[in-house]
Amino acid sequence: VDEVWRAHVSTVIVDPSGAAAVNSPFVFARLFTVLRRRFVKLTREACHHFSEGMEEVTSRMFELVDLLQNQVECPFVYLDSEVLLSSQLLEHHKFCIIEMNENFLLYTTKRDAVLQRLEAIKVNLRRSGSLSSSEVLEAPPVRESKDVVLAWNLYRLHFQLLLLFSSYHKMVRVLQTARTLKSVTDLSTSLNEKISEIRAALNACEWKTPQVEAHFANAPDPFMVSRAAAVQSLEDCLRHHQPIQALQYLHLYRRKWFNEMFGASEEDDLGVLLTVCAKALTEGRSSKSSANYFFCFRISCLYNV
After folding, report:
1. Alpha-carbon distance 227 to 225, whole Å?
2. For residues 14 and 23, what is the distance between their CA atoms, to the nearest angstrom?
3. N- or C-end of the chain: fewer Cβ atoms within 10 A?
4. What are the backbone dihedrals phi and psi of residue 304, each rounded to the nearest 5 degrees, phi first?
């Protein structure tokens, strides 16, 4: 996912049409989800290797982990390139992407520093474990000093991740200025109804209800379907209030087009289906010069029809 983000940034910067820029929110949301999961795992591992006397630091670290897991969520944004071009937001969007990427690069640098410190502590623990008590390599003050440095690097990594998240919100705020256009229509209520359906389907799939098992038992062959037909089938399912079947199809199509518009894992299900849903909600409208703005639960969508 790191390489996907880097490739996306390079494409957005040189693309004058905005066709690549419309995918920025979805690509970043996937990146941030992976970075957060890795950070939580890294923090727990580091805290496990802290020596005695670091209990207060460990408690604080777990509070930060809880904050990231439960309080930090990427708003969903869907937009069409015409929205960026007609509102003259494309260049602003590119500057936001550059800033986000700078924060991402700083994050990777600080992450590597944490990994290096953690590995040094683990190596010394392994070596000291094979020695007698009279041959222990590090005195307690030395070990404590290394723990403090590791904790400091973890704090820096945490706040860098929050800075990265903050830069994403800056991009969202830039995109939200398109709401002032007369051609933008609020479709919050329509999207809100679909969101509840999709969330219910996700919960049903998680528990594998009989209804879900029945849907997946009659799965079509994804390799006999074109990309356009696959997207259309998802739109049809959502339009006809069949979110469980939409999830079934999505998982099948992902096997054929892995890590593309259908996502790479179940964590992408909600974002993919909301994107498809936003497109489906705008189909059939006669005006070709208007755009639609959606906002619901931390979810905003811009789509030009």
Report:
1. 7
2. 15
3. N
4. -90, 130
Distance, in Å, from the CA atom of 57 to the CA atom of 50, rounded to the nearest integer, reads: 9
Mean local confidence (pLDDT), 103-112: 96
Q: Which residues pair with 294 in a beta bridge?
A: 301
| Alpha-helical regions (H) of the chain | 2-14, 24-48, 55-71, 81-86, 90-129, 140-176, 188-207, 210-217, 227-239, 243-256, 269-282
Q: What are 267's two structure tokens?
A: 């964590």
Residue 6 CB coordination number (10 Å):
14
Q: CB of 262 within 8 A of CB of 253?
A: yes
The answer to whether residues 265 and 31 touch, using CB atoms and an 8 Å cutoff, is: no
Q: Strand pairing partners for 231?
A: none
Mean pLDDT computed over every residue of the chain: 78
Reported as half-sphere exposure (CB side, CA atoms, 13 A), residue 161 has a value of 27
Sheet containing 299-304, strands listed edge to edge, beginning at the edge strand earlier in sequence: 76-78, 299-304, 291-296, 184-186
DSSP secondary structure code for residue 292 in this structure: E
